[in-house]
Amino acid sequence: MALRPFLLLLLLLATTLFITQAQGIGSSASDCCLKHSQKAIPSGVVTSYRLQGPESGCLLSAVVFTTKRNRKICASPTDNAVQKLMQHLDKKAKSDKIKKRGQTLRPRVKPKKQRRQRV
Predict the structure, then answer these.
(1) Dist. CA 37–CA 26, nearest whole Å
(2) What angle (nearest 5°) sits at the alpha carbon of residue 48, between those of residues 35 and 41?
(3) What is the mean pLDDT of the chain?
(4) Strand pairing partners for 68?
(5) Are 73 and 41 a contacting pair, CB within 8 Å?
(6) Distance between alpha carbon 119 and the CA centroid of its chain, in Å?
(7) pLDDT, tens digit (0-9, with 9 covering 90-100), for 39-86
(8) Which CATH architecture has domain 31-94?
(9) Which are the contacts of 36, defined by CB distance < 8 A and separation ≥ 6?
(10) Rounded to a whole number, what is the distance in angstroms from the first to the last CA of the chain?
(11) What does the domain layout of the chain look like in residue ranges?
């Protein structure tokens, strides 16, 4: 007799799990661009970019730029201005990485003055 409520509860749990998976709850679907922006993107506003396409689970191939205010701008990857902006961001990231590598981990300390020895 105690087995019947347990099986009913198990069936209810399995049904809930299947419904949530069908609705996309708990899935790792990314936020995809649905169209490209036609406006020019100023280079001073953009901080980074990522590529979107079929390999990332999206139908539209696009470059997704992230602005300083954390907004997303979708652009066509075949546009010459977009490719130049991507190259600019790559160079900037590379130079920032070199600058960080050149910094020392030790704090800068003035060398101690040597005392004169009395003879």
Answers:
(1) 30
(2) 50
(3) 81
(4) none
(5) yes
(6) 67
(7) 999 989 999 999 999 998 999 999 999 999 999 999 999 999 999 999
(8) Beta Barrel (2.40)
(9) 60, 62, 74, 75, 76
(10) 105
(11) 31-94
